[in-house]
Backbone:
């Protein structure tokens, strides 16, 4: 008998040579310098208008554009079109079975892209959280302590911009990319390379934003308001490029999700059998496709004002600052629901699993998601109530803002009625979902003060509005983000997370989240403005309380990080195929899910929420454990 020898693996240096992250970084740095020096070489009579422009502005834009192009080339995004142009047969799959190296380059497996998103967004989430800790450290004293006013504003702007830009894809990036094809019975996304492109564009954007401090930062917060925008240092260019790239990523991500859900559903999966999470993804993707291009357009005009002396937003040249404010919030308020809607969907997806009941009011829940999607386009001018807009417009936007609470209430009703008389299991994902009800309710109630003109005049621009925003977004999106991690990461990785550490993480996060942001309502009513590092001495106790609570909240994130690393890198306890006894199709597959998802495309004959109404649908391949009801 002849022994079978394993094939020799190439040395690691051979595996590092090629189109991958390392090559992308090298070519990205080269492209950055090409753009930087190329901008300085701009000459010619047709370009005289650059004569009075600071070359640093043009150089920053050109350098980062060149860097992003070089980065994408290094990752291999031009390989496919180049091979087609040269007459080679097309490669439909890219590094889908390439071992650990596939996570560090272009890969067309939607599950790999989902895990890339999870770790990439997690990295920038922690960077944004570190900025929040620095902000609260500065506010431990009512007078200037460590950071100058300009540096403090940059920290505030980086925190808000990074959180808003990155977490816009915080659910659709990791979880929708991974799960939607499986949930609808497909083997891949509609456009696999576009899917990979959205991730790497977002990572390039995050890297650009972190360099803003080397160019003087920016003073505008996350909104980039004019005329501060055009007057700011070159660090403002990093803000513009970050949000523009994030907007392109969001647009392409939304288009890919819509195309996949509309055209690739398996036989029998009618619209009224669609998992509620997929409905949430479809609603969010619709907002992304329609709202993000507005952001790209307004930032392009802002970049031209800064680098080419156009006057879109300059009153002296016939432009208008109000134009920027209106266009930004045409994107900015649907953006709030781009952040909130996936949280709604995750809660409604998980509650039936842990209450052991069918989802109450499925059609009402779908109507709620679609209603929020529609009404989110009719509320943006409540951000301009104190900006001098026509007073006749105020009643309409006040009414439309309050009307959006009706479809939002549908979500609450469906969730609460699903819990009613259910056999509730208080697992870690369920605890985070239950916290969502409490947090988002406080966020919604505080929003009434900001939607009504008389009270908004008092609270606008204060810490009250900041507390409201964090209750709706962090209390809504981030809590459900962690619910999704604890629920789906065992399926995504094949390894089980420590439940005891998970519960410690939940309770410390929930308690200190409320201890951090609830006092800010009072601080706001006591007239402390946002984005200012000097405040009245009488408010020091409350600010110290908030800062200490924020540090404890940050510690809770370290508990989560330890759990994640400890469970996935050291303990490595194998996860069951269906640890939650779910009826959803992804839990009827092995853990982790194989590259091809399904040996045969499944046929759907019922909805996934019929708990107590019969056996679990048998999609499990031979040898894999099935779920229990």
Residues:
């Amino acid at each position: 008998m002849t022994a079978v020898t394993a094939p020799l693996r190439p040395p690691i240096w051979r595996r590092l040579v090629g189109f991958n992250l390392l090559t992308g970084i090298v070519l990205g740095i080269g492209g950055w310098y090409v753009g930087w020096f190329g901008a300085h070489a701009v000459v010619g009579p047709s370009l005289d208008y650059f004569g009075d422009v600071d070359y640093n502005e043009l150089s920053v834009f050109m350098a980062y554009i060149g860097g992003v192009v070089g980065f994408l080339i290094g990752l291999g995004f031009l390989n496919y079109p180049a091979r087609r142009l040269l007459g080679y047969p097309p490669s439909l799959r890219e590094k889908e079975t390439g071992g650990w190296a596939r996570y560090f380059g272009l890969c067309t497996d939607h599950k790999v892209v989902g895990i890339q998103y999870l770790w990439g967004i997690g990295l920038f989430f922690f960077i944004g959280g570190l900025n929040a800790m620095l902000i609260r450290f500065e506010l431990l004293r009512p007078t200037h302590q460590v950071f100058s006013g300009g540096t403090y504003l940059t920290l505030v702007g980086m925190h808000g911009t990074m959180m808003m830009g990155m977490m816009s894809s915080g659910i659709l990036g990791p979880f929708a990319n991974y799960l939607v094809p499986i949930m609808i019975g497909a083997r891949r996304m509609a456009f696999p390379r576009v899917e990979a492109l959205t991730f790497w564009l977002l990572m390039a954007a995050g890297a650009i934003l972190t360099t803003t401090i080397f160019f003087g930062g920016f003073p505008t917060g996350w909104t980039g308001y004019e005329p501060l925008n055009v007057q700011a240092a070159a660090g403002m260019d990093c803000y513009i490029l970050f949000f523009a790239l994030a907007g392109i990523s969001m647009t392409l991500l939304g288009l890919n999700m819509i195309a996949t859900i509309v055209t690739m559903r398996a036989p029998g999966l009618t619209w009224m059998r669609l998992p509620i999470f997929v409905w949430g993804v479809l609603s969010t993707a619709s907002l992304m496709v329609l709202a993000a291009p507005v952001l790209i357009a307004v930032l392009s005009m802002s970049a031209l004002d800064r680098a080419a002396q156009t006057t879109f937003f300059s009153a002296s040249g016939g432009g208008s600052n109000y134009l920027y404010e209106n266009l930004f919030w045409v994107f900015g308020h649907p953006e709030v629901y781009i952040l909130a809607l996936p949280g709604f969907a995750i809660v409604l997806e998980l509650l039936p699993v842990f209450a052991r009941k069918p989802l109450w009011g499925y059609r009402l829940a779908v109507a709620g998601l679609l209603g929020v999607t529609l009404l989110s386009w009719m509320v943006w001018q409540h951000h301009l109530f104190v900006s001098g807009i026509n007073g006749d417009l105020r009643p309409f936007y006040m009414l439309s803002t309050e009307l959006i609470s009706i479809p939002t209430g549908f979500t609450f009703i469906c969730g609460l009625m699903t819990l009613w008389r259910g056999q509730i299991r208080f697992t870690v994902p369920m605890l985070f979902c239950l916290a969502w009800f409490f947090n988002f309710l406080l966020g919604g109630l505080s929003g009434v003060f900001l939607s009504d003109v008389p009270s908004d005049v008092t609270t606008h621009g204060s810490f009250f509005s900041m507390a409201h925003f964090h209750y709706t977004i962090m209390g809504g999106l981030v809590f459900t983000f962690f619910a999704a991690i604890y629920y789906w990461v065992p399926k995504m990785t094949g390894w089980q997370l420590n439940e005891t550490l998970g519960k410690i993480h939940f309770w410390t996060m929930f308690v200190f989240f409320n201890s951090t942001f609830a006092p800010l309502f009072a601080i706001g009513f006591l007239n402390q403005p946002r984005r200012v590092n000097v405040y009245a001495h009488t408010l020091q106790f409350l600010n110290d309380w908030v800062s200490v609570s924020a540090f404890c909240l940050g510690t809770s994130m370290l508990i989560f990080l330890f759990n994640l690393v400890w469970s996935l890198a050291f303990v490595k306890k194998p996860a069951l195929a269906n640890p939650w006894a779910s009826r959803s199709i992804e839990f009827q597959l092995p853990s982790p899910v194989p590259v091809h998802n399904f040996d045969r495309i499944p046929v759907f004959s019922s909805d996934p929420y019929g708990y107590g109404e019969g056996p679990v649908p048998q999609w499990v391949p031979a040898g894999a454990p099935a779920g229990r009801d």
User: Anything to note?
Assistant: DSSP finds 20 helices and no strands in the chain.
